[in-house]
Specification:
By secondary structure, the chain is an alpha/beta fold. The chain has 8 helices and 8 strands.
């Protein structure tokens, strides 16, 4: 069972992560998938798979494709704070923002999936959700969430982390403090090294 870290503490997870059921038709997840979707209107998942996705009672974290197709039937539960949405690495936060009239903060939780350690697109997704779209609620990293990524997850705007099952939560919490001086600016407001040098606006 995967552990959930929120902030810098291990907590109980009261959200159910809902994933699409298996389909005989493969779901393409290439980097060009979003472009193809916008040009052709092709759905991110087959219609039958989206329709067959079961939405259990309680707080649920739904795939973006399910939310986009079924948001009218889920509106009451969304208003009650029971619906969160997660994006796969090939999906754009703009689609989610548009579906909510640019009011992303209606959702108490947004998840971003990291299907593989080497797929870093989710870092950009998190940064855009925090900066361009002004999302202020829980932003959760999902999937291949490992100790070595924790510091960078946090810098890009994540504040909750559903660890891969083999990860030790105490080591992951400690990893949030791996570095004291960042080299780049990001969502956490820490000034990068070059801004701290004398003569560039930082104290001596």
């Amino acid at each position: 069972m995967a552990d959930l870290i929120r902030g810098n503490a291990l907590v109980a997870d009261d959200w159910t992560w809902v994933r699409l059921p298996e389909s005989s038709e493969p779901v393409r997840k290439s980097a060009g998938k979003v472009v193809l979707f916008k040009l052709t209107g092709e759905p991110a998942a087959p219609e039958d798979v989206i329709a067959a996705c079961e939405v259990p009672a309680g707080k649920v974290l739904l795939p973006l494709s399910v939310w986009l197709k079924r948001r009218d039937e889920l509106a009451v539960r969304a208003d009650a704070g029971e619906i969160g949405v997660w994006l796969d690495s090939h999906e754009e936060p703009a689609e989610l923002a548009e579906s909510l009239g640019d009011n992303l903060n209606r959702l108490p939780v947004i998840g971003v999936n990291f299907p593989k350690f080497i797929d870093g697109r989710g870092f950009s997704t998190a940064f855009l959700l925090r900066t361009r779209y002004g999302y202020r609620n829980e932003l959760r990293a999902l999937g291949d969430v490992l100790r070595d990524q924790m510091f960078f997850f946090h810098r890009c705007g994540f504040d909750a982390y559903l660890l891969r099952a083999d990860q030790k939560p105490e080591r992951c919490i400690a990893a949030l403090r791996d570095f004291t001086t960042p080299y780049q600016t990001s969502t956490d407001g820490l000034p990068p090294v070059f801004r701290r040098r004398v003569g560039l606006g930082a104290p001596a």
